[in-house]
Amino acid sequence: MTQLGIIEGYYGTSWSWAAREYVITTLKPHGYSYFIYAPKMDEFLRKRWREPHPADTAKALRNLAAFCRARGVRFGVGLSPFELYRDFNDAAKADLERKLAEFDSWGVDDLAILFDDMRGDLPRLAETQVEILHWVKERTKATRLITCPSYYTDDPQLDRFFGIRPPNYLEDLGRGLDKSIEIFWTGEEVCSREYSPGHLKRVAEQIGRRPFLWDNYPVNDGQRMSQYLHIRAFTGRPASIAPHLSGHSVNPALQPVLSCIPAISLAESYARGEAYEYGGAFHRAARMVLGDDLALALKRDLLFFQDVGRPRLQPKTVERLTERYSRFDHPGAREVLRFLKGDYEFHEEIA
């Protein structure tokens, strides 16, 4: 088994602090050894990254770091320094140094510098990002440094949204980076259906190290995906990919409790290898998270939630499902009810 962890990399309403503690506690026995805080809606990690976090948020993050340490889980933060690579001047370095000191005060073990979802068709993109990452490495107290490249997948939709990727970008980035710096990769697509040893071996050759997988399942942000609950067990992640990875990070859904079901199934997929069966893994994980009766109801209604989607459900079906899940006094059932009300849906697409 490769090392498993959670990276909060979704758009949309961020989880509560209690939800984060619940997920960390629930997944630790299944081998999840790190938790990286990087919700896209935290502006102080993105466009307002030069500003310190509000005092109440900083306190909550210090508490979360302590919570992780007490349970033997690494705590991390993902910083997206918006377009820092356009002008890495003295003022930018001073702002970044202050931000790194803030992270150090929280007790960060893993620091992720994320260059995703920003313009990338720029001269010397890889060289500038290498310079930034080496500069950060010399100043952070974090014991693991990970980066997400501007082009973190083969998927051409990145070129459509953020400009055509520079020639040999991944090769130049990998060649220039210190070998101790990990590199995130989402696969052949932004939301990859599967991973193969052959694909991962090819990527490793490009970046000069094994990729650190950023797995965009069960994440369900965006206009289209937020209309579905991604709760089925993992498929397309055979145990044979483990030797080709330096780590496997799960980007969870907007529903923290329900996200634990597929997350537990991923651990089982690695543990059972060729004996893994995703149907049985779903049922076992759902029972662990939800209890027998609620797990059975969710299994019966899985088609409605993951395949049909909320906007295509008939009003009578929504009424019947709402009545059914209102009978359960469980946070997982409450996430289902919020989904049926449309509380998680986006009204415009995100890049």
Explain what the structure shows:
There is one protein chain. With 351 residues, the protein is an alpha/beta fold. It has two domains: 4-277, TIM Barrel (Alpha-Beta Barrel), CATH 3.20.20; 285-341, no CATH class. Helix content is 43%, strand content 11%. The chain has 13 helices and eight strands. The chain has helices spanning 17-27, 55-70, 90-106, 125-137, 157-162, 169-176, 197-207, 256-272, 278-290, 292-300, 302-308, 315-325, 331-341; strands at residues 4-7, 32-37, 74-79, 110-114, 144-148, 182-185, 212-215, 247-250. Strands 1-2-3-4-5-6-7-8 form an eight-stranded parallel β-barrel. α1 runs parallel beside α2 (55-70), α1 packs parallel to α8 (256-272) and α8 (256-272) crosses α9. It is globular. The two termini are 32 Å apart. The mean pLDDT is 96.
